[in-house]
Amino acid sequence: MKMKRIVLNIGIALAATIGIAQNGNVTNAAMAYKDYQSNLNGNMEQATKDIIEAKKYIDMAIDHPDTKNNPKALMYKGKIYFEMSGLVAVSEDQTAFGDFDPEKAAEEGLNALIKSKVIDEKKRYVDDVNQYANIYRAQFSNMGITAFGEGKWEIAMSGLLGAAKFGEIIGVKDSMFYFHGSIAAYNLSEWEAAAEASGTCVELGYNAAEAVLYQSRSLVQLGKIQEAEKALQSAVEKHPYNVDVLISQINFYIDANRLEEAEKSLSAAIALAPDNSALVYTLGSVYEQMGRWEEAEAAYRRTLELDPNNVNAKFSLGVLFFNKGADLNNEANALLFGDPNYDKLVEGSKEMFRKALPFLEGATATEPNDVIILESLKAVYGKLGMTDKYNETVARINVLNNQ
């Protein structure tokens, strides 16, 4: 019994000694970090040595169970890791840092700062962490905003998303930074970053319609089609009366050639905005692709009621009737010689061409230099035997093609 007690006492003494040693590592890391700050603007070589030494000490402290959840240790880990990641980016001598991964370290540093605040029950280091985060939040946001305005997407992404991350540390959801950072990431084809940042905006309800569009398109680029659709559906459920959110879903289904789903989303959007001519026209286009000609015609005509100068609706109606005429003409030509239905089909064909004519003429009156419209109009003139108009249109096309 006596021997066991002696052994136990030795164990307690040893544990206390180890704990003191680990706290010493935190102190040494703090001192090395302070030296780094002092040398940063005057002696970069020494500052590099200081931050490497600080990392050595803080790693020993974080790796030990007695100090791995120490808020002071975590605060210094956050500062040291983040500072070192930035130093690597500007250092001419990369070998000094060994296999240090600056991107991973920066993320670890930010997470350490967040964790320090979470577990700091006595709030001893909260102000220090917040002050550090606020400094970098201001620097990163200024850098990102300026770069975004200049179209320098890489700097804009780093600055704005960096500022948003530091905002998270102080408890601020910088939705504007996430939103514009996601656009910068999207323009760089940084799909993971774009999807994550725009997804955060959707959760926060900030520019949800545009944000979910960037989110879904980024997820599609990553091959995560189901996630993209789920994100869109979730956004529609959260914002059931937001037409723009529905439009993002519509575009997703159209891009995927899922016309039935597109029709349902379009119908829901039109129910909310019945006078939106763009939605009505798109519904007509979907109907046409589905072979539902009468419904397509009705939608195009409704579009022109809402927007009499809509050249797309005029052209689409003209092409719709032209195609019907062409189908009847082909059907007539497929008949055996002497079939009594021939004349009826030919006349039906010409009737469709005559219906197409005013819409195509109206479209070219609005867009006189559109060769595609003129080519369709030329074909109708040819089918109706309108030689002068046909020749006149050919001449116009030749002039445009030679410009």
Task: Looking at this protein, list some descriptive labels.
disordered N terminus; single chain; 0% strand; mainly alpha; elongated
Write up what this structure looks like.
The structure is a single chain. This protein has helices at residues 2-39, 44-62, 71-90, 102-119, 126-149, 153-169, 175-187, 191-204, 208-221, 225-238, 243-255, 259-272, 277-289, 293-306, 311-333, 342-366, 371-383, 387-401. The protein is mostly helical. 80% of the residues lie in helices and 0% in strands. Mean pLDDT is 90; it is low at 1-21. Helix 12 runs antiparallel to helix 13.
Topology:
Blueprint: H1 2-39, H2 44-62, H3 71-90, H4 102-119, H5 126-149, H6 153-169, H7 175-187, H8 191-204, H9 208-221, H10 225-238, H11 243-255, H12 259-272, H13 277-289, H14 293-306, H15 311-333, H16 342-366, H17 371-383, H18 387-401
- Tell me what portion of residues adopts beta-strand conformation: under 5%
Mean of the pLDDT scores?
90
* Secondary-structure class: mainly alpha
Into which percent range does the helicity of residues fall? over 70%
Largest sheet: none
Unreliable segments of 5+ consecutive residues:
1-21
Shape: elongated
Tally of helical segments: 18
Number of strands: 0
| Intertermini distance | 106 Å
Rg calculated over all Cα atoms: 34 Å
What are the secondary-structure elements, in order, as H or E?
HHHHHHHHHHHHHHHHHH
Task: Characterize this entry briefly.
By secondary structure, the protein is mainly alpha-helical. It has 18 helices and no strands. Helix 7 (175-187) packs antiparallel against helix 8 (191-204) and helix 16 runs antiparallel to helix 17 (371-383).
